[in-house]
Structures
1.
Amino acid sequence: MKTYSISQLARAFGLSRSTLLYYDRIGLLRAAKRTAAGYRRYSENDRKYLERICMLRGAGLSLADVERMLSGDSGPSVAILEKRLGELGDEILFLRNQQHSIAAMLKNMTSHKCVTVIDKKMWIKMLEAAGMNEESRKAWHAEFERRASEAHHEFLLSLGIQESEARDIQEWSLGKL
Amino acid sequence: MQKNVGKEDWVAMFKEVGLDDDAMKQWHQIFEKRHPEAHAEFLKWLGLSPDKIANIRTCC
């Protein structure tokens, strides 16, 4: 009859040796035999039992519930699975709430971005598209400055231009720079 | 010296530097095609009503 060392069994199920030692200590899975030197030897039945443990753990059951499911009849097992199903429903609800708040935050952030989406570079490109070269853009600034200096200043700031650069542009448009 | 400039002032300023009505219409078309959201923001910033904004965006 084939037997397994603790390391072989641990590797086969992707567990650590200490996990199997822990299962041994709490009585969940005890090795069928020991060698003369005292090493644990797991039987084929032990391997199949561990397979069921891993399946139940994979469904998110606690070790206590796993033990109750494997030792009891189907009565408590149904109750345990129903309880776990209910817990999962709560967790899904919790996660969905997180999903909604993140989506709402993102929506807020991206719509906020739209407000400042026109920057200096885009504005110059749009003026160029209208056929305005640097000379006529300067004339436009001069006109804006002459008619409504403050509004001109505010418009430049709204394009994301720094205060000092905006002042420079205003002076330049009037030929003072 | 006024603080707020409205649509008329903008039109007047662009006319002053040599843009005619056709050029401005074309400019709105280009702006709408390249940056629809920025175009809407700009018109809103000018203080136009939602109706007028929709009008300019679809007509031009």
Note: The radius of gyration of chain B is 12 Å.
2.
Amino acid sequence: MACCRRIGRWPALPPPSADPMASVGYLIAAVAVTVAGLVGYGVTLARRIEEARAERRDLNR
Amino acid sequence: MIVDDRAGNRWRAILVAATALMGAIALVMVVGYAPTDRVQGIVQRVFYFHVPMAWTAYLAFLVVLVASIGYLWKRDLRWDAVARASVEVGLLFTTLVLITGSLWGKPIWNTWWTWDARLTSTLVLWFTYVAYVMLRAYTPDLERGARFGAVLGILGFLDVPIVHFSVQWWRGLHPTPVVVRSDPQLPPEMQVTLLVSGIAMLLLYATFMAYRTRLELIRDQNGLLQENREVAGVAPA
């Protein structure tokens, strides 16, 4: 590869799997991580807002 | 003092609904409309959320840059609230970009990670904004933290063009752009799916920002209320 000759530091990598369907597990993992990350952040954010509002109510009392 | 924010709540609810609708459409298109790549196979579909999340992370750090300049110029803590919010949301997207990229790289490159220029500069970007979060957490004085954070928010953005152009400046393993160029190299179905995913991710960013900025403003109000109580000699709540 031109990139390897030019930089000269890439490790030699074995070729990836020839079966394109073998990668379905990686796709599922990527979707799961993305959904968990985004939904998890949204839920945590909602909880933090509720805590801050409760603190404000206490301070205004 | 309790601020009435019913109009803001309504807008935020509309934003959530629009994000959910667009996200559902994008998911259907990614699964059922976009064709399967002949060379990479099904894992190529990671592209439809990996790339839009990377674009959204760029946008988030651009917002940090603008808000940081705004804060240093006006010394208005609302600019700082926007910067703090956007750093956190940008970090979330950058984290997911690194993880999904790794999950794509394993079957395609046969490695989870390589010190390619794009990957390395993205990791540097991630560490920069982790440093921002730590800086803010360990600087209790709000205005002092805002000032330091604004400087880091401006300097940190210098890495964004490096990340973007790294695939052109240095030749490595990461693919070069296939969409943002004069002659897009994607079939129309893939382009449309990517566009819809991009819009969904943009709406998600806007939703997170709306709520995250709101959180910062409530916390700032709480801080001021606490100070007022202390000045008035009232015991902490």
Note: Chain A touches chain B at residues 2-3, 6-7, 9-11, 13-17, 19-24, 26-27, 29-31, 33-34, 37-38, 41-42, 45-46, 48-49, 52-53, 55-61 (CB under 8 Å).
